[in-house]
Amino acid sequence: MPIVGPITIGEHHTPLFRGGVADLNMTFGLAIVTIVAAQVYAFKYLGFKGNLGRYFINPLRDPIMSFVGILELVAEFSRMLGLSFRLFGNVLAGEILLAIIAYMTKFLSPVALQPFYFFELFIGGIQAYISLCYQLCLFPWGWLTMIRTSQLMMFTPLLKLIN
Questions:
Q1: Which of 65, 131, 152, 154 is at 20 to 30 A from 81, Cα to Cα?
Q2: Is the Cβ–Cβ distance between 87 and 131 less than 8 Å?
Q3: Which 3 state secondary structure label does DSSP give 12?
């Protein structure tokens, strides 16, 4: 029930419904899609040789930049881990907070949990904003795509009325 807690099944009270990003596999999937999309975008604009040239540099010609290239390659994988763990950690912390407050208040949980539900909605909005900003920084044309999509969503019903 949405007011007093999740619907559970079994003797261990396993939740029947959970948020999608409350599972680490989902957040890894989102991070992988974001990093792969950034690499596809880099291949498109820098070319195959130009993109690989960011990571693999001749160590005889420039030894310091070859080490920086290896660090950039490691940074791509750590960025993927950071994205997935940050989102998963925030959602998991919210679930644990709600479970602890519900356990501590027992019979008053429908009343006591309401401010924490609003707090979780606020935190979710912040996470969505951070994710949007990150992805729009990776893809410079993201702003134009977002604006064009919102224009199409606003004006399509008006165009149907006119025609």
A1: 65
A2: yes
A3: coil
Nearest to 53 by CA among 32, 38, 73: 73
pLDDT tens across the length of the chain (163 residues): 455 566 777 777 776 766 677 778 888 888 888 788 778 878 888 888 888 888 888 888 888 888 888 898 898 888 888 888 888 888 888 888 888 888 888 888 778 888 888 888 888 788 777 777 776 776 655 555 555 555 555 555 544 555 5
User: Could you tell me where the DSSP H helices lie in the chain?
Assistant: 24-55, 63-105, 109-112, 114-138, 142-162
* DSSP structure class, residue 111: H
Distances (CA, A) of 68 to 28, 72, 95, 99: 26, 6, 40, 45
pTM for the predicted model, two decimal places: 0.64
Which residues, including other chains, have CB under 8 Å from residue 54's CB and lie 6 or more apart? 42, 46, 69, 72
